[in-house]
Structures are given as structure tokens and as C-alpha cells.
Design a protein that fits this description.
By secondary structure, the chain is of the alpha/beta class. It is 24% helix and 25% strand. The protein has a 6-stranded mixed beta sheet, with helices on both faces. It has a 4-stranded antiparallel beta sheet with strand order 5-13-2-15, with no helix packed on it. A 4-stranded antiparallel beta sheet has the order 4-3-14-16, with no helix packed on it. The longest helix has 23 residues.
């Protein structure tokens, strides 16, 4: 089991040697406090790059080897020093849940699905697994750390069941808080790595932080962000570009479980009505089942991707101190595949 040390994130999460990441510490009932600088003190700057590869139908390509990948840092090919495609890789997952008024309509369905997501990612084999930890942040008018980092999913679930939506949306503050104000697991961000899952519509009307600020801090902390959008088919939300940018800049993606709920209903968008024009009438079993089916599929896809990514690590052969942000490009020597990886990283703390 990985031991826990209570530390607060704050600076860059880049400088961490793999040796330090894999050295277990004796378990104690009350782990000692250490500073952010102490937690990431190392003479090796190792970059971790989670990679997802899908075919032209969106299916995972799972059988690639190290020789199939090429990784470039600022255009220069790098030597990949670590590679794995194993399932159930150690990970710390932040569950960021939109508790604003905009999520009242399907809240009961998403509430059930979020609980399934916690179990699917923290107990992928249906039983407790010390390789996985998580924490819960709810955001409405303010962002709040509802449950600090734990390897016990029941603690997260117990706290989550007490939540209900109401108020504004402080999404950006929630992302910032996840990167600055929660307990770390020893070895982050190399092993375990860091993931955030946002369940919401991307809308933000109450944050003190900006989108640019939280994109940067997520990149500095080597976080991969996924989004489960709560926007329904036929509707648009001005927050959708926010959610998409947060996810894609970090190597993640957004899934839309409600997107096709009425897509096969003739005239739904042109002549919507309360009766006779819905594929699934509100309040019926068919309607509820269709929503849940879409949500379950989205949750399954997200959970599966989190636990089955390719993981590449390398030590840059040239870290130019004048270069604030360094771009990464990952290539795969196959035709008709899509490669998703983080856009880049910050080699030094600001």
C-alpha cells in the first residue's frame, strides 16, 4: 500500500525522480507534514505523458509497444525512459461536481452515475485497491473541498450523498483548488499520476480565477482532465468551450451522455412540445432508462480511459530556462489513429 503524506500542492509538480516516486514510506497513523518544495525536491526533472490512442471509430488501440511511439519536446525527438500499457495504473482522481442550479433537471440521474464513477475508477475490479485514491470537490457559488484525498471510496460516497445543487458556478476555482489545496499521495505526479473528472456543463459565473490561470496550473501539476458534460441534446451552453479547453489542453476529452437522447425524433428541435413529440416522455421508465443508458456509457468510457492509458516518461535533454512553456508532441506509427496527450508542460516553477 502507498503511504500518505499530508502536503499541499502549490508549485510545479514536474521535478520528481522515479526513484523517489517508488520508495514506500513506513505507514504512520498521523503522517508528518512536509512542504511543497520538500515533496518535489529532486535532481531529476522527469516528465510524465499519459497517452490515449483510438482508431477511426473511437475504439481504444491497446496493443502498441514502445517502438510504435515517437515523443518530441519542442520539436526534438526524446528518449522515452519508461513505458507501460498495464491496466489499473496507480492514480489519484479528483471528482469535481457541478452543484449549480443548471444541473437540477437531471440531478438524480447524474447523482447515481457519479457514485458509479467513483466505484468504477477506485475499485475497478470490484474490491478496494490501494493503488487508487480520490477526493471530492463540489462547486456552486463557491468551490469546496468536500472530502480530502482518501483511498476509501465509501468516504467520498458518504459525503457526496449529502450534496444537492443550488447557486452559481465556480468551476475555475474548483480546478485551481484541486491543484493547490488537498492532501497529496506520496509519489505524485509520477506514480500515482493525477486525473480530474469534471461532471458539469462547463459554465462559470462565480470564480475568482480565470480559465487561462487554471489551464496553466493544471499543466504545471501534470493533471489530465476529463469532462462528463451535463448539457442535453439540442441545447447549447456558453461554458462548453471552457470544458473542452480544460480537457483537451491536458490530454483528456469531454463525453456528452445526453447528446443523442432525442436525436432520432423528427421535429423535436423545430416544434418542441410537452406531449407527443418526445421519443421518451418525461416521467416514464423509457425516458429515465434512456438518460441512464447514455450516462452509464459515458461513465464507462471515462473510467476505462483513465485506467488503460499508455504512460510515457522521459527526462528532457534540454530544459531552456528562458522557455516558459514547452510543447509536447506524441506520434504513433500507424495510419488512421488519433493520439491524445497533454499539449506541453512548464519546466520550472513561476
Amino acid at each position: 500500500m502507498y503511504s500518505r503524506r499530508q502536503v499541499i500542492l502549490g508549485g510545479t509538480a514536474l521535478a520528481l525522480s522515479s526513484a523517489a516516486a517508488q520508495q514506500p514510506a513506513p505507514h504512520t497513523a498521523q503522517p508528518p507534514q512536509v512542504t511543497s518544495a520538500e515533496a518535489f525536491k529532486s535532481g531529476v526533472s522527469e516528465v510524465i505523458v499519459p497517452v490515449t490512442v483510438t482508431d477511426d471509430k473511437g475504439r481504444f488501440v491497446r496493443d502498441l509497444d514502445l517502438k510504435d511511439f515517437e515523443l518530441r519536446d519542442e520539436g526534438k525527438v526524446q528518449k522515452i525512459t519508461y513505458f507501460t500499457r498495464e491496466r489499473n495504473q496507480p492514480v489519484v482522481i479528483g471528482f469535481l461536481v457541478d452543484l449549480s442550479n443548471s444541473n437540477r433537471l437531471h440531478w438524480d440521474k447524474f447523482k447515481e452515475a457519479i457514485q458509479d464513477l467513483v466505484l468504477a475508477t477506485m475499485e475497478p475490479d470490484g474490491k478496494p485497491d490501494p493503488r487508487f485514491s480520490g477526493y471530492l470537490i463540489g462547486y456552486s457559488t463557491e468551490a469546496e473541498l468536500l472530502m480530502n484525498t482518501t483511498d476509501d471510496p465509501e468516504k467520498i460516497l458518504d459525503r457526496f450523498r449529502k450534496t444537492k445543487p443550488g447557486g452559481g458556478a465556480a468551476l475555475f476555482d474548483a480546478v485551481y483548488q484541486s491543484c493547490t489545496s488537498r492532501t497529496l499521495v506520496k509519489g505524485e505526479p509520477i506514480e500515482p499520476r493525477r486525473v480530474i473528472v469534471i461532471v458539469g456543463d462547463g459554465h462559470d459565473n462565480n470564480s475568482k480565477k480565470t480559465l487561462d490561470e487554471v489551464v496553466e496550473i493544471a499543466q504545471r501539476n501534470l493533471v489530465t482532465i476529463y469532462g462528463v458534460s451535463t448539457v442535453a441534446f439540442g441545447f447549447r451552453n456558453d461554458g462548453e468551450p471552457n470544458l473542452k479547453r480544460l480537457c483537451e489542453s491536458s490530454g483528456g476529452r469531454v463525453v456528452y451522455p445526453l447528446e443523442n437522447l432525442y436525436s432520432d425524433v423528427s421535429g423535436y428541435l423545430s416544434t418542441p412540445s410537452d406531449e407527443g413529440n418526445f421519443a421518451y416522455k418525461v416521467g416514464t421508465g423509457g425516458y429515465a432508462a434512456a438518460i441512464m443508458r447514455g450516462i452509464v456509457n459515458a461513465i464507462s468510457a471515462t473510467a476505462g480511459e483513465i485506467t488503460t492509458q499508455y504512460i510515457l516518461r522521459y527526462t528532457p535533454d534540454n530544459t531552456d530556462v528562458a522557455k516558459k512553456f514547452r510543447k509536447i508532441e506524441v506520434r504513433v506509427n500507424l495510419a488512421n489513429v488519433k493520439v491524445r496527450a497533454r499539449e506541453g508542460y512548464y519546466p520550472f516553477a513561476p
